[in-house]
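re: ur question from earlier - yeah i can do the single chain one, its not a big deal. heres the input i used so u can compare w yours
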Amino acid sequence: MAAEILRAKILYIEDDALTRMLMVRQLKLYFSDVFEAADGRDGLKVFFSSAPDVIITDLSMPHMDGFQLVEKVRACGSSTKFIITTAFREETASLKDCEILFKPISFADVYASVTKLLKLQ
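and the output i got, formated as tokens:
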């Protein structure tokens, strides 16, 4: 039985190409609009062109890290929600109003966080 596709725009930002490919493939099975970027700088460009409901982002990335990305998106006054993925628990203390998922993450964790943030559960 096919999964129900939920209407939501998701932006997934991850510098590890394999991780990004696998997660984007899964996200596309469940959400109507899925965008991807390899770093924060490209992610910010995709944010402006796609206006996602949720951004799922790594913190440690080249060109622009996740902290800078969150700051720039919030400075725009956007209501976009954030899910932060990281292997380092200590670095998340300064992030407010973000869901935090500690690596390694599963798709089930990502799905649960997205639907919770969008109040789809």
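The beta strands are 6-13, 31-37, 54-58, 81-86, 99-102. not sure if urs matches, ping me
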